[in-house]
Design a protein that fits this description.
Blueprint lengths: L2 H25 L6 E3 L9 E6 L4 E7 L8 E3 L7 E5 L13 E7 L3 E9 L5 E10 L12 H4 L5
Antiparallel strand pairs: 1-4, 2-3, 2-6, 3-5, 6-7, 7-8
């Protein structure tokens, strides 16, 4: 192969690698501080962020008339919602690689994302889940299947 062809192949490889990195970083980011809110068409009643050990890091509930936001940055309470956990101040930062769950409670459903922390306020969704919602937001089950087993079993 000629030297000129080798140089062109190297340039094309670098361009291809650069374009691939750009596509991945724009369309498949490694985490975001936005808690993406999906609903079944009924108003959002609550958002609960917790880890798989059962610790609720942040819980907000609807408190009046409002329009449903499409995303909520972690720790930012949107108009028409009130923060229940923590009772005051901002929620704690995530621990890198901590397994997290984001539960969005509508009038009838618990729609959620499971994933991991990629930074202090960044969350990467790895799986979606859903089911009937609990009666109250403080009844959301925030544990991985492994941590739901009783110690005796």
């Amino acid at each position: 192969m000629s030297k000129q062809k080798t140089i062109w192949l190297a340039v094309l490889a670098l361009l291809g690698f650069g374009a691939g990195w750009l596509v991945k970083s724009v369309w498949w980011p490694q985490g975001s501080d936005n808690m993406f809110l999906v609903t079944d068409g009924t108003p959002i009643q609550s958002v609960v962020v917790c880890n798989d050990k059962g610790e609720v890091l942040w819980r907000i509930v609807a408190s009046g008339s409002r329009s449903d936001p499409k995303t909520i940055p972690y720790g930012d309470v949107p108009p028409g919602f009130k923060q229940e956990v923590p009772t005051s101040g901002a929620p704690r930062d995530f621990v890198e690689n901590e397994h997290l769950q984001v539960h969005v409670l509508s009038k009838t459903q618990d729609m959620g994302d499971g994933g991991k922390a990629t930074g202090p306020r960044q969350f990467l969704t790895l799986v979606n889940f859903g089911g009937p919602r609990p009666e109250r937001a403080d009844q959301v089950e925030c544990r991985s299947p492994e941590n739901r087993k009783s110690p005796a079993s």
